[in-house]
């Protein structure tokens, strides 16, 4: 008699878990069906940025009010009029006297002061000298304040715009949007570098390489934006070189700072850059409403951020005595240089620590015992 061969016990076929549903054991082994803590934090971060955007822009622009706008008074009785303007409720003007009407006009023309009031007692009206190239909203605000004061005295005002905006820059906003484009380009390219190459550089040399890559990008972005507004669109004639240099410095400074923020915070550093340059930087830049018209927080913050520094530099370059003169007196260049230094140094110092190599004197692992042979 022969015995039948032994057969293996039947087992149920293994089935892959159902990953199409979010119930039961449908999620992959070792993974929770719920959102990770990191995802939740990113969603909350997006909400904070959204609310910050609304608070920043509405908070800055909902009630533009002049504050300490510089104005000079020239002519007979200038001291008394300047004192009256300087003592207005709410301090909308910061008035001083000029020796002559010609000096007052020159100070407005070169951007030293925002406006000048030339008293003409023998005429039916006094002369208000403004420079709308320095900001149309600001010029209009000064005109409204002075007109109201003159009306209380039974006088009228004739307005002379000695630095009008160019024909291609009807509302005087082109400089702000040019600066905005440079700032966006700076933090955008740095964000992409961080996503593709890691939030932190793999050592000091790698950090320097990452910064070096940004230089040609900054030059192309800076001079490219300058060419678009000067030659391609004809907003302003000339100024290609100084605007290109200002733009290149802006792009490089913003990009370097964004790299540092990513090195500090990882992916959240991109959100921090958006908060700094979009939520805080854009409303305080002096674009639609110039800085003397903004609330105190934005008025003080604006000149210290790249957005405001660049916007002022563009206006000074196009309408006044260039980036080293005008309303900013070259302050914007120092601000951009400072941000560039901080960003470059930070991105070089905040690098990944090298992973330690295993020591050679460590005890070797003993081989696993062989299984016992079956009888």
TrEMBL record:
Compositional bias ranges of the Acidic residues kind: 7-17
Keywords assigned by UniProt, alphabetized: Membrane, Transmembrane, Transmembrane helix
Domain of life: Bacteria
TM region(s), chain numbering: 40-60, 176-196, 208-228, 240-261, 268-289, 331-351
Region feature (Disordered): 1-32
Protein name as catalogued: DUF3533 domain-containing protein
